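A reminder from the course coordinator: this example appears on the midterm review sheet, so study it carefully.

Given structure:
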């Protein structure tokens, strides 16, 4: 649903921006039709971005987590547990001993 909103928004923005460019270069005679297209497009792109931002930062979404060493595994002593500061994603890393 949110992805669909974003895609529609990008399409609106694309059309709006190309109409604006056409208007700037006097290629098009419907001057302000691009204004609502750009506004609606921006809203459709921003709203889903804001909704997903609350539980996942942009960096985490592209896979750049900020892992901190939190603990050692209870059962296997050389397995370290890392937790991402931002999204709380956990990962286990096997550390060689010695
Ligand atoms: Zn993260």
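Designed residues:
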């Amino acid at each position: 649903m949110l992805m669909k909103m974003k895609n529609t928004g990008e399409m609106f923005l694309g059309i709006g921006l190309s109409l604006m460019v056409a208007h700037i270069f006097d290629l098009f005679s419907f001057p302000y039709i691009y204004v609502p297209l750009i506004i609606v497009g921006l809203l459709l792109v921003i709203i889903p971005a804001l909704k997903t931002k609350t539980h996942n930062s942009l960096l985490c979404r592209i896979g750049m987590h900020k892992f901190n060493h939190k603990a050692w595994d209870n059962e296997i002593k050389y397995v370290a547990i890392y937790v991402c500061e931002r999204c709380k994603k956990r990962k286990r890393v096997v550390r060689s001993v010695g």
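The pocket of zinc ion is lined by residues 60, 65, 84, 86-87, 89 (CB under 6 Å). The first helix runs from residue 2 to 24.
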